[in-house]
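Checklist before submission:
- one chain only
- standard amino acids only
- sequence pasted in full

Submission:
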Amino acid sequence: MRVKHVIYAFGLMAMAALGLNAAGPDANSAEEVVWMIGDQPIWRSEVEDAYQQMKQEKFAIKGDPYCFIPEQIALERLYLHQADLDTVEVNAATILAEVDSRINEWIGQIGSRERLEEYMHKSLPELRAYLTETMTNNYRTTQVQQSLTSKIKVTPSQVRRYYEKLPKDSIPFIPTQVEVQIVTLNPVIPRETIEDVKDRLRGFADRVNSGSAEFSTLAIMYSEDGSASYGGEIGFRPRAGLVPEYAAVAFSLTDPKKASKVVETEYGFHIIQLIEKRGDRVNTRHILMRPKAAEKDVRDTQMRLDSIRADILDEKFTFEDAATILSQDKETRNNHGLMTNSDRESRNYNTSFFEMSELPAEVAREVARLQPGQISKAFAMKDPHSNKDVVAIVKLKNRVDAHRADVSNDYQMIKAMYENVERERILANWINKKIAETYIRIEPGWSDCPDWRYNWLKTAKK
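Returned file contents:
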C-alpha cells in the first residue's frame, strides 16, 4: 500500500523534473541547494518547478508550499536510500511498458509526438529517460514500504477495538449497497453479419497493403475501439498485456507497411499493423469492429432468458445453477453468478457489494426495482468487459441500507482502515528512526516550518 506522503513525493518529483509549463527559478537560484539528505541535494529549482505546476493544476497545498514540497521530496530520498541498502531491483521490461503506455496516453491527449515534445520542453528520448527513472524510483519506494509493513497481522478483536475507539465523526457513512448475481446470454448473430464485418476489414487491409490508404486514417474513421482517436495505436505491450489471439498475430508481424489478416478475439474482429518491436514488447495499431446483433436476435435471446427465469421461479433449478451452467459471462459463471466489485481493489479490499453508482447503468436500473431474492426480467445491456451486446437477468441477493459503517456489515472496510493506520504507524516510526540516523542540512529560510509532518530539525545542521 502506497501511503499519501509517497504518492505526493512521486508526483512532485515528476513535476519538478519535467517543469511542465513552469516558470521556474531564475538563473541565480537554479543551482541553489536548499536541503541536503545524506549526500543527496534538494535543489531550489526542484521545489520551484513543482510549486508552479501545482498552482497550474490547482493542487491543494496544506500550509507553506516551501515547507510541504521539500518534505515530500526528502521522504522519497530516504526510501530510495533504503532501497539501495536492500538492493531492491526492478523489472526493466515492466517499467518500460508503463513508460510507453504513459507516453502514448499523453500523445493521445495532446495530438502528436511533436506537440508533446513542445509542451514538455523535452525530446521524446529525454522524456522517456526521465519517466523511466521516476517510475523506477516509485517502484523501489513502494517495494521498501511493502517490505516494512509486510508482517502486519490483524485479528477480529483488534478490528473491533479499533472501531470502538473511533470518534463518531470518523466513522464512514456507507451509501446503500447491494449484492447482485447475473446470468447473461449472447444474442446469436447470423453468419452473414459476421462475414460482412470480416469482409469490410479485409477490404481495409487490402487498401493499406496496396498503399491506397493509411491504416491510422481508417482506424480513426471506422474502428470501434477507444484507440480510434489515436489512429488505432495502443502503445508498447508485452505479450502478457494482450489477449492471446491478438498477441500471436502482433508478435508475428514483420512489415510495418502491411496489415494483418482478420483476427478474432473476445472483443470482436481486428486487423493489426506493426509499428515497432522492442525486445519482448510490441507497439501496434488495430481496427476493431463488432458484428451487431439485430433487434430480432436480441428479442429472441430475451425470450429464451425469460423462459429460463420462469423455470427458476418454478423451482426447476436455481439461479445459481443457471449462472454456473448456462451463463456466458465468464467473469461470474464460476462464482454462481455473483458480481465482484473490482473498483474496491484500490481501497485495499475486495467485495461483492456495490454502491448503485458502481454498477453498470442497465443493471442498476433493474436492481432498483427488486427486493432481495427477486429476479429481473430479461434486458439488453453492454458487457462491461468486452462492450458487446448481451442479454441478462439479475437477482438481488442482498441489500444493505445506507448507514454508518459497523463491524457486522462492513468488516472488510474497517479492517482495511485499521491496516492502513498500522502501516502509517510503522512507516512513521521507521521515518523518524531514519531521520535520526541521516545527515540532514536545511538552509536558512527553509527550516521554520510548523506544518512539517516529521521533526527534521532533530539532526538538521543549520
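Reviewer check: The first strand starts at residue 33 and ends at 37.
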